[in-house]
Amino acid sequence: MIQLDDVSYAYPDTDHFVLSHMNLSIPAGSVTGIVGASGAGKTTLAKILSGFIPHVDGGELSGTVVVDGVTIAEASLADAVSHVGLVIQSPFNQISGAKFTVREELAFGLENLGVPRDEMAVRVAEVADLLGITGLLDRSPYALSGGQQQLVAIASMIIMRTPVLVMDEPTSQLDPGGTRMVFDVMSSLRDSGITLVIFEHKLELLREHADVVHVLADHQLIAHGPSRAMLADPRMEEWGIGSTRFTAAASEARTKKLLPADVELPVSIEDAATVFASFASSKGA
Amino acid sequence: MSSTAATPADSKKVRNRIFIAVGTIIIIATYLYLVVGQPTDIAQSSFSQSGLIAIAGYVVGAILLAIGAIHRLPTATVAMVPVAIALNIVVGQIVSVIGLPVYLDSIGTVLVSALAGPAAGVVTGILTNVIWGLTLSPIALPYAVVQVIIGVMAGYAARLGMFRLFYLAPVAGAITGIVCAIVSAPISAFVFGGATGGGTGAIVGAFQAMGQSLLGATTLQGLLSDPLDKAISFTIVVLILAALPSRFRQRFPFVRQYNVFGRKAPALQHQTAAPAAPAASAVPAADVTDATPDN
Amino acid sequence: MSSTLFDNRKSVIHRLNPVTKLIALLAIIVTVFAIPLWWVAGLIIVLVVVPAAVISGSGGRLLSLSLRILLPIMLVLFIVQGLTFPGGKTIIWQWGIIDVTSEGLLFALGIGSRIIVLVLASILLVLTTHPGDLMSALTERGMSPKFAYIISSTLQLIPAFKDRADSILLAQQARGLSLKGNPLRRIKIMLPLLSPLVLGMFTDVEERSTAMEARAFGSTARRTSLIPVADSMVQRIARWLFIVLALAAVATPILLGLL
């Protein structure tokens, strides 16, 4: 679905490569998490995957980027954005600013594509229901809290129904309940065949919802693996990403020989419960 | 990208050029008709259609210019225009509340023109007065053409490199102000009878008392305030531009194409500005894409 | 959350198609500027503007807003032209060196009546028309969606911008900065206040344009609109009628040889 071959990039007026010789392969219908310390180039990679680099930002991009069968550099921006959607970091800036109600804000992209009115109304109602913002439809997008704005921003991209959706820290403004709901929505989108790439640092939720996690450090994707194995990797600390408290506690316990050396380190509370249960049963036996 | 759809894009370009040309001709013709065509007109107290011609000619001309100009603007510029208009209006209001003897209601227009060219300035200019009409007072609407002229002249001043040096900008501003004063005088005279404000009205009255015609009085009144106002506005814009990060400024194709800010010759270490040039980097570059938007 | 003067009510005038109101406004302005008789403007105010304002329920706001704009202009107009009108010959009142001429006052009446109509009718349109509806209606008729975007977005940006400007000014005044003194000094004070205001707003532009592109703003498809704009056969006929009336108004003085 997404294929990056030997991709390097430097912003205009710099000779410093933010990303260098990067390769990435993401299968269709999966949720892929990408983690990295701040400044590792996450936003840059998100823009490359969605075509804004090179089409808007310029700079030097080498290598090939293919998304949904389209070679991004050769396609027009209008073509690229019909294959891949991007939820940017700031919900305040994701909102068009040109619409006076949330209902019309959600329809902004569909209006631009010339989607018939009846279909728009159906899709607006659907996506509002999916993200639990039906009650906000008649409010002004500017009269919302940061979290509500973020839900509207995410909904305004989901409604576009692009086969690939890239999200740059989509839950930064949300409370734990809202965050969990957004991740559940991602899983249901994946089940309906959409390919998702999420730049996130909420590791426990990535563990639960991402199929594969890639690590971005030193201008490259230096490691990847199934979410639990990758997120529990001891090198996560040195890459500046850190680990969850469950991983840290289990790792500490293992060093103190409280847990067997071959124990698979937990990332989320569910993992921890499993480890604890097997530990308890082995002690009890 | 544009070459694949040559025919419709070209016919649109021709259409837009026609809009711009016709709009310009109408504005010039309106002024010439009002000033040269009927020099004795209103002095005889004969009510005439001069007011209608002043409003209609200028507004229609400005609208045609804006329609021809807006299609040239890429999304990045369109997204910047609201900020510039808000700057015009908010600063213009603050200045009038504080009671400075200038307007300073075109800083955003000049700024956009310097970054994105005359077409962007035209759109910013006319919509500033439309929004002024929607939010504050419809008195601004007939003057839309003045903001359009500021946009055009500031854009060409930028192309000529007037924003490269601190002391050239006020000169460009003063020249723009003279043109503004001349073009706006028929509106002040034939639509508002010289009474656009307390201070300006008194000055118009003084010139009339000295034997000037109404149009002569509003022209002289404009020449007293507009060149100073625009010289200050252009200077403020130079200061703002200097404070903006270079990366932001160099994103604009207009800035790179006409080397608006001089100093930093963009071609030296980066050959990316020229689409055909090979990438001068250690990385094997498969394709080097210029940031020029495909509009 | 927008900064227009829109007065949210449910009157017949409010519910008219925005284009109908816009064409009516243009027809009124063309008529008063085409026919050089002050009582024509007076009739339009009495027969069209006042009834419409009463039906809309926004008459009170119309009155207070227009008075604030019109009073200073009218005052200056009558004083300046009454005293110094270049074509003034017939002196009707004299005091020292001050001569008030009837030509001057008549000229002020002619110009003033037009300005009053222009201001009243325009403000009534703005009071009774939601800017979003006006933009949808015009986009539907082929106006570039870029115009609609810029206008709607600016209307929502201005309150945010004003808040930032106010907080900066207040903060400076709280530090004991006085905005008095000669103009040059005041400009010198304003300059450093302007920069942070501007830079803050411009940094958002980059991201916002990216988000707009992601939502197909650059698409060349013919736009559709989620909210339908109300229209009727009566209004369609009325619009053509307004256009014909405006053209007739332009032709009348020429035909009657009034010029």
From TrEMBL, chain A:
Coiled coil: none
SUPFAM superfamilies tied to this protein: P-loop containing nucleoside triphosphate hydrolases (SSF52540)
SMART domains xrefs: AAA
Keyword Mitochondrion among UniProt keywords: no
Keyword Transmembrane helix attached: no
CDD domains: ABC_cobalt_CbiO_domain1
InterPro entries given in the database record: AAA+_ATPase (IPR003593), ABC_transporter-like_ATP-bd (IPR003439), ABC_transporter-like_CS (IPR017871), ABC_transpr_CbiO/EcfA_su (IPR015856), ECF_ABC_transporter_ATP-bd (IPR050095), P-loop_NTPase (IPR027417)
Protein origin, superkingdom: Bacteria
Keywords: ATP-binding, Nucleotide-binding, Transport
GO MF assignments: ATP binding; ATP hydrolysis activity; ATPase-coupled transmembrane transporter activity
One Pfam family of this chain: ABC_tran
Family to which this protein belongs: Belongs to the ABC transporter superfamily.
Name by which UniProt lists this protein: ABC transporter ATP-binding protein
Originating organism: Terrimesophilobacter mesophilus
Lineage of source species: Bacteria, Bacillati, Actinomycetota, Actinomycetes, Micrococcales
From TrEMBL, chain C:
Compartments, record wording: Membrane
Membrane-topology annotation of the record: Multi-pass membrane protein
CDD domains assigned to the protein according to its UniProt record, in alphabetical order: EcfT
The keyword Protein biosynthesis appears for this protein: no
This protein's UniProt keywords: Cell membrane, Membrane, Transmembrane, Transmembrane helix
Pfam families: CbiQ
GO terms under cellular component: plasma membrane
InterPro entries xref list: ABC/ECF_trnsptr_transmembrane (IPR003339), ECF_transporter_component (IPR051611)
Protein name: Energy-coupling factor transporter transmembrane protein EcfT
Source species: Terrimesophilobacter mesophilus
